[in-house]
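Let's inspect one such protein example.
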Amino acid sequence: MTGVGIAAVLVGGLAPLGRSGALSGIAKAPVDGPVRIGPLGLAGDAQADRRHHGGPEKAVHHYAFDHYASWADTLPAPGPAVLGAPGAFGENLSSTGLTEATICVGDLWRAGTALLQVSQARQPCWKLDHRFGVPGMARRVQASGRTGWYYRVIEPGAVAAGETLRLIDRPCPDWPLARLLRAFYVDRLDRDALAGIAGLALLSPSWRELAARRLESGTVEAWRPRLDGPGPGAG
């Protein structure tokens, strides 16, 4: 694979999220024409919780439009209503032909004039439940392995819908994101896999540290605060 078409480039501001009332930038809308990409992401895009979203290691979010049909077929209402167009998962880039099984840690992709590097997969959080109006949506996304992924920005530039995302280099061909997701969420204490992940220099530091902590402790970190959100029972 050398390139895929970029179907949409999307940005969004802050708005209350569903019944939670929490501010979020998860609702994205397509943009016509070139959009500037800097070290912290796309011009005009926003994140409310900068502790867990955004930053240099999560500057650009990509989600495969390939997954939308499966979600629409399996989710209860009102989830499918959110899937009418790209942007349902808060992605900045939407495409078909590229998924977690075919993209690798450290991949370098030319997007317009910007150069992006795959830094990590997405860790779903409770805000997806409110975005889709489906309790447990974050858990569904995590279990499915259809999480999406993030890029760090190696060279700033601009990108527009209709351009081609071109693969420039694949330094870690043995580490597709699907392999990482299996290690983190399925075979959760596979020591060989965790050791390999902890040593992946091109993976985001937070993911390498997470693998190292599991190796050291022999236990899996609590997921409930991330997946279920604040409130009774989250801990």
Observations:
- The chain is about 25% helix and 25% strand.
- Helices lie at 68-74, 127-132, 137-144, 177-185, 191-198, 205-217, 224-228.
- The two ends are 42 Å apart (CA to CA).
- The mean pLDDT is 94.
